[in-house]
Amino acid sequence: MCSWVRTGWLGSLQQHRSSSGIATLFEDLMGQGVTRLVPLFLLLLPRQGAEACGTMGCCFQDPPYPDADSGLASGPRDLNCYRILSNAGYECSWEYEGPAAGVSHFLRCCLKPGRCCYFAAGSATKLQFSDQDGISVLHAVTLWVESRAANWTEKSPNITLNLYSSVKYDPPPGNIKVSRSAGQLLMEWETPAHQDGAEVQFRHRTPGSPWKWGDCGHQDDAGFESCLCPLEMDTAQEFQLRRRLRPGVSGGPWSSWSSPVCIPPENPPQAKVRFSVEQLRPNGRRKVTFHEQLPQLELPEGCLGPDSGMEVTYHVHLHMLSCPCKAKATRTLRLRKNLSLSGAAYDLVVFSRNRFGLGPNQTWHIPAYTHSEPGVLNISTRANRTTMHWPAQAQGMTYCIEWQPQGQDESLATCTLTAPQDRDPDRMAMHSLSQASGAMRQKECYRVTIFASAHPEKPTSWSTVLSTFHFGGNGCRLQPRRPGAHNMCL
C-alpha cells in the first residue's frame, strides 16, 4: 500500500500542505483507518525551506520569524558591504544600537523582487560570504539587516550596490613615519599592495576633547602615501587615518581607522631638576644626587598605553673637563637618582628626548674638588726630567697626571696618561716626565692632581688619587679650598 501511495498519491499530497487537508483526502479515499497514518506522512513531507537551507549559503526561504518591523528608533544601522582584497571574499558589517543581550541578526539580500534570501549571523555584527553562496556579486543587489529580539524585529535601512565593485581598502599600516615639516606634521606610510589611488582622511583629538576631522586628499604617488596634519605646540594629540577607493573610479566604503598615532607637544614640559654634590670620599669619588620633579603629560584616550610613542625620557650628558688628554671626555646616561664622580671638574646637561628628538636642556658646572693633601706625592727633578711617586691603586690602573701653574685657568692644565703598570714592592706608582713633554719648571708653583681608572674609555670610571701643590724651589704658598658640598638649583 505504501508503494502505491507514494506513486499514485504524491501529487495529491503536495497539493494538500495542511494536516487537515491531508486527513480529509485520506478519509475520502481510504476511510477512517488511514487517518492514523497522517502523522507519519507529515514527517516524510519536506517542510518549507528545509531542502534549500543548510549551514552554508544564503537561505532562499522566509526567515524563521514574522515579517514585521517594530518601528523602534534603535536597532541595526550603518550597514556596509564590500569585497575583501586580501582573501577574495565579501563581508557585511553593521552596528547595533540598543541592548545586545538575546539579539539575533539576519542579513537579508534581494537579487530581484521576489527573489530574496538571508544569512543567520547570530549575535555577531559582521558576516563573511563568498560568490558561491548564492548572491550575485556582479549585478546590483539590495541588502539590509533584520535584528530579532524577544518578539519584535528591527530593520536597518536598505543599501543597493554591486558587491564586486565595492572594494574596502585597508587602513594605513602600523609603522607610520612621523616628522615635522614647516610647523606641521608629515605622516608617511607604504601603500598597501594593490590599493593605489586612495582617498585619505584623518581625525585627531587632544586630551578631553572631541574628534576633529581633516582631509589628506587623493594619493597619486606610487608606493607610498602621505598626509600633512596640524601640530599642537603645548598639547599631546592622537591621530587616526583611514582610506578608501576614491569616488569616481567605482567608489567604496571607508576602511577601518588605523591604530592611534600619538604625537607629543611641540614644546614638552620641562623637568624641574636640582642636585647636590658631596665631599670627596676616601675612595676618590663623590656622590652627586639629583632631586627631580618630572612633569606628568596629559594624554588622549588612545595614547595611554606603554607603547604609544608618547614616552618622554630624561638624560644627563656628562663632560669631564679635567684631564683633557684622556681618550673620551663625554658620556650620556639616563637620568637617575645618583651619580658617583671623581673630584674632577664637570659640565652637566639635563635634557628630555621624545620621538621627535631632543627637548630643552638645563646646564650646570661642577667645579673641581681642590682640597690639598701635601706629602702624599713625591716629586724629584733632575736635569730636564721630573719623576713622580705616589701610592698605587689596584693593579692594572691607568693614571692621568694633570698639572697647572697656580692661579691659571683650569683649561690651561697639562696632562699625561700612564699605561697600566704593576705595583712595586713598596706599593708605589711612578711616572717620569721630560722637559720636552711639559715637565714642571724650576721655581714655579703647580697644582698637581692624579686620577685613576680601570676603564679609561668611560668618563664615569675615574677616581681622584690625590690633589696637592708642588714647588720646584723651597716652598709653595698653599691656598686650599675648604671642602664642602656645592648645591645648585634651577
UniProtKB/TrEMBL annotation:
Which interval of the chain is the signal sequence?
none
Q: Report the locations given in the UniProt record.
A: Membrane
Question: What keywords is this UniProt entry annotated with?
Answer: Disulfide bond, Glycoprotein, Membrane, Receptor, Signal, Transmembrane, Transmembrane helix
Q: Which InterPro entries match?
A: FN3_dom, FN3_sf, Ig-like_fold
Q: How does it sit in the membrane?
A: Single-pass type I membrane protein
Q: Does the keyword Ribosomal protein apply?
A: no
Asked if Transmembrane helix is a keyword of the record, the answer is yes
Query: How is this protein named in the record?
Result: Interleukin-12 receptor subunit beta-1 isoform X3
The residues covered by the Fibronectin type-III domain are: 172-266
GO molecular function of the protein, one example?
Answer: cytokine receptor activity
Q: Might you report a single GO cellular component term?
A: external side of plasma membrane
